């Protein structure tokens, strides 16, 4: 395993372009779930602990009655679904038995804890505003928790609240809890979750909790170089937290072809019969031949393109660090936001290929 990482490091050192020509690119606000740049001094508003109490804005009868989803024999009220220490497990057959930390979070946090599955779902597939943790090499998972804990990993946009939540959780987790979570998520394979659609126009949207929600089914607004990733079904995804209800990612026309070149060759081109080096290196160098993860590097195939762009930008701007993050910095140094969009769109469109 150490030899594999050393080979990757050598490959990056030899092949990656030098310099940081693209480091001045503006923040891709859509990837962070915002419409306007942060103002000087902006900080995140801490996320409240989800509690099992009625919301005055909703009908009490709707909040307390049992709800159902297709294909499940379970029944949960909206109060059950929203409670941090009581994960609504619609499909227990879709995953191994959940360790306590997955359901209830770090013991040290007491009533302030929230289980991993509260945000990342029992299946670990996550959502565009957080991480898709299922199927990742346990070594990678553990490294990220350590990086959150040490302060090496945070976010470029200081307003994003769930990064602070993750840092607090990481600091409270015991080594045993971290291993239990890493083994749990690492024991499952990634399966399709995001449908990628090339389009000139996207539906009108609103932002809730750093997530885009479609307010119309009509494709009327220019995509304008963004990726707009929305739930396939807002009721199932948002209100009921159905872990079988995925997302659709609208991407600019031509993204998949351009992304394929960057991902598979690093952007190498042939001009007048001569090979012109690319601006990066092939993703398989680090992430494995099927982009399903290798050693301490994550699987990226089929995963949220919004999340991928956010991480690429964090790496480029220096807000995501750590031993393996250092190896990625020359890889992303010369990439533009348009490159990030193309790479993420293509990678998200790939079907997962089991390799473990």
Written overview of the protein:
By secondary structure, the chain is an alpha+beta fold. 37% of the residues lie in helices and 13% in strands. The chain has 15 helices and nine strands. The strands form four sheets. A three-stranded mixed β-sheet has the order 1-5-4. Helix 7 packs across helix 9 (175-186) and helix 13 crosses helix 14.
Short key terms for the protein model shown above:
Cytochrome Bc1 Complex, Chain D, domain 2; disordered N terminus; alpha+beta; 356 residues; 9 strands; two-stranded antiparallel ribbon; three-stranded mixed β-sheet; 15 helices
Short characterization:
This protein is α+β, with helices and mostly antiparallel strands and 356 residues long. It has helices spanning 2-15, 29-32, 60-64, 78-82, 100-104, 116-120, 138-150, 161-172, 175-186, 234-239, 255-265, 284-287, 305-317, 325-332, 337-349, and strands spanning 194-198, 201-208, 211-222, 228-231, 247-251, 269-271, 274-276, 292-294, 297-299.
Output the CATH homologous superfamily of the domain at 2-40 and 192-349: Cytochrome c-like domain
How is the biggest beta sheet arranged? 3 strands, mixed
CATH class of the domain at 2-40 and 192-349: Mainly Alpha
Task: Tell me the number of helical segments per DSSP (H or I, 4 or more residues long).
Answer: 15
Give the CA-CA distance, first to last residue. Answer: 14 Å
Give the amount of beta strand, in percent: 5-15%
Low-confidence stretches: 1-21
Order of helices and strands: HHHHHHHHHEEEEHEHEEHEEHHH
Shape, principal axes of CA atoms: globular
Radius of gyration, CA atoms, in whole angstroms: 20 Å
User: Based on DSSP secondary structure assignment, what is the total number of beta strands?
Assistant: 9
Overall SS class? alpha+beta
Helix proportion: 25-40%
Mean pLDDT: 91
CATH domain topology of the domain at 2-40 and 192-349: Cytochrome Bc1 Complex, Chain D, domain 2
Task: Specify the CATH architecture of the domain at 2-40 and 192-349.
Answer: Orthogonal Bundle
């Amino acid at each position: 395993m150490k030899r594999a990482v050393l080979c990757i490091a050598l490959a990056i050192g030899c092949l990656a372009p030098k310099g940081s020509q693209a480091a001045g690119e503006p923040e891709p606000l859509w990837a962070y779930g915002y419409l306007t740049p942060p103002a000087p001094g902006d900080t995140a508003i801490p996320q409240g602990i989800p509690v099992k109490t009625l919301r005055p804005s909703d009908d009490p009868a709707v909040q307390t009655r049992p709800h159902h989803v297709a294909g499940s024999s379970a029944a949960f009220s909206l109060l059950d679904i929203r409670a941090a220490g009581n994960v609504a497990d619609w499909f227990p057959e879709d995953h191994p038995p959940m360790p306590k930390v997955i359901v209830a979070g770090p013991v040290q946090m007491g009533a302030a804890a929230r289980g991993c599955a509260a945000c990342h779902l029992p299946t670990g597939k996550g959502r565009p505003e957080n991480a898709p943790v299922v199927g990742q090499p346990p070594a990678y998972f553990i490294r990220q928790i350590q990086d959150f804990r040490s302060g090496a990993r945070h976010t470029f946009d200081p307003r994003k609240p769930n990064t602070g939540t993750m840092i607090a959780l990481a600091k409270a987790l015991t080594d045993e809890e971290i291993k239990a979570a890493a083994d749990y998520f690492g024991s499952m394979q990634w399966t399709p979750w995001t449908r990628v659609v090339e389009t000139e126009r996207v539906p009108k949207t609103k932002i809730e909790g750093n997530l885009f929600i479609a307010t119309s089914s009509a494709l009327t607004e220019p995509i304008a170089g963004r990726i707009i990733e929305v739930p396939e079904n807002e009721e199932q995804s948002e209100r009921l937290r159905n872990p079988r209800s995925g997302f659709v990612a609208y991407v600019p026309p031509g993204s998949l072809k351009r992304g394929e070149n960057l991902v598979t060759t690093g952007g190498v081109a042939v001009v007048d019969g001569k090979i012109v080096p690319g601006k990066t290196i092939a993703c398989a160098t680090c992430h494995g031949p099927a982009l399903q993860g290798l050693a301490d590097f994550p699987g990226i195939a089929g995963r949220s393109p919004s999340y991928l762009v956010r991480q690429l930008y964090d790496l480029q701007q220096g807000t995501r660090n750590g031993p393996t993050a250092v190896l990625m910095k020359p890889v992303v140094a010369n990439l533009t936001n348009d490159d990030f969009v193309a790479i993420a769109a293509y990678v998200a469109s790939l079907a997962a290929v089991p390799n473990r």
